[in-house]
UniProtKB/TrEMBL annotation:
It comes from the Bacteria. The lineage of its organism: Bacteria, Bacillati, Bacillota, Bacilli, Bacillales. Pfam families: GntR (PF00392), UTRA (PF07702). This is Trehalose operon repressor. CDD domains: WHTH_GntR.
Length: 238
């Protein structure tokens, strides 16, 4: 016999998929659902937990279960794609907000990440990416000044990679990436619309030129409900 919480989960899933339950609205309270489905509170909680595991809702403390927008942006993990290039494939025009741009001597952490020498200068660029009226990505880029001698606010709002490739004739070749999930920092909470989410997806990348020179370290922090990270893998023949 099919367990009742599975029936409840399937019923709500179908309502979300059909659009009868709209994204960014809240499901009825547990008490209301107990009455609606003639089920115990434990059964309702099992159904809600399954909906959350499947990416349909996010439980937000003090508010309830928010229905997530299941339309996500594909973000290729293995490729090196600028935000402007990614934005060109989106149906709604995004916006880049420049939060900070500075040039200074590399501190200990960045000096290590970019393999710099004492006294080397580095650009620090902080940008928020806004889509659909929501700030959902926070990008921090550190670029070695010996490879990138000039940057402006206009370049950073448009496309740094386009400037590097078209104006400086740099050949950006490959990157080493790390993807982890972290709790939001105070900066995340200030510059992103987290809407109650208690984690962010973080991509840290070391980016190299075609002569294997390391020129960029970047940290891209994503609200987890909006992006689907994609990759293509092929099993090697043995």
């Amino acid at each position: 016999m099919k367990k009742k919480y599975l029936d409840i989960c399937q019923s709500i899933t179908e309502q979300i998929r059909s659009g009868r339950i709209k994204p960014e609205t809240y499901l009825p309270s547990e008490n209301e659902m107990v009455k609606e489905y003639q089920a115990s509170r434990e059964t309702i909680r099992k159904a809600l937990n399954l909906l959350a595991q499947n990416g349909y809702i996010q439980k937000i403390r003090g508010k309830g279960s928010m229905v997530l927008n299941t339309s996500k942006f594909d973000f290729p993990v293995s490729g090196l794609v600028s935000f402007k290039e990614l934005a060109g494939k989106m149906s709604e025009p995004p916006q880049t907000i420049l939060n900070g741009l500075s040039l200074g001597e590399a501190g200990g952490f960045i000096k290590k990440e970019l393999q710099l020498e004492e006294g080397d200068l580095v650009w620090d660029v902080l940008r928020t990416r806004k889509m659909g009226g929501e700030r959902i990505i926070l990008d921090r880029d550190f670029l070695a000044e010996k490879h990138v001698p000039h940057l402006t606010g206009d370049i950073c709002r448009d496309s740094i990679y386009q400037y590097l490739e078209k104006e400086l004739n740099l050949n950006i070749s490959f990157a080493k990436k790390e993807i982890i999930v972290e709790e939001p920092t105070d900066e995340d909470r200030s510059l992103l619309d987290l809407d109650g989410f208690q984690n962010v997806v973080v991509i840290r990348s070391h980016v190299y030129l075609n002569d294997a020179s390391l020129f960029q370290f970047t940290e891209s922090r994503h609200r987890p409900d909006k992006f689907r990270f994609t990759d293509f893998a092929r099993r090697a023949l043995h």
